[in-house]
Amino acid sequence: MFIIVFSHRHISLFPTKFTVTSEMESAAIFSVALARRKRAGAVFTALWNVERSNAGLPDTVCMDSDRAIRTAVNAVKILIEQDRKNGI
Predict the structure, then answer these.
(1) What is the SS3 string spanning the chain?
(2) CA–CA separation, 54 vs 83, rounded Å?
(3) Is residue 44 a contact partner of residue 22, using CB atoms and an 8 Å limit?
(4) Are strands 11-15 and 2-6 parallel, antiparallel or unpaired?
């Protein structure tokens, strides 16, 4: 499996469990977690899409982070349930 770090100009692959990130801050967190053999995750909220705006396409601005927060909380719940099943 691989960590895939996307940037505007290149894609880097690192052998490990499958993870995708598209910005520097979580890439740093994933790198530290990998080095320390810990799990890490990230949830992103797009407030607006600059590329769509620049292309003159419609783009709805979203300032609500509720869905991202609920997603992160539910992800942690799933991890806790899996750890309990596996005796961790």
Answers:
(1) CEEEEECCCCEEEEECCCEEECCHHHHHHHHHHHHHCCCCCCCCCCCCCHHHHHCCCCCCCCCCCHHHHHHHHHHHHHHHHHHHHCCC
(2) 45
(3) yes
(4) antiparallel
Distance CA 9, CA 12 (A): 10
Per-residue pLDDT of the chain (88 residues; tens, 9 = 90+): 344 444 444 445 444 555 555 577 888 888 888 888 888 888 877 777 788 888 888 888 778 888 888 998 998 999 899 999 998 8
Structure tokens, 11: 């894609």
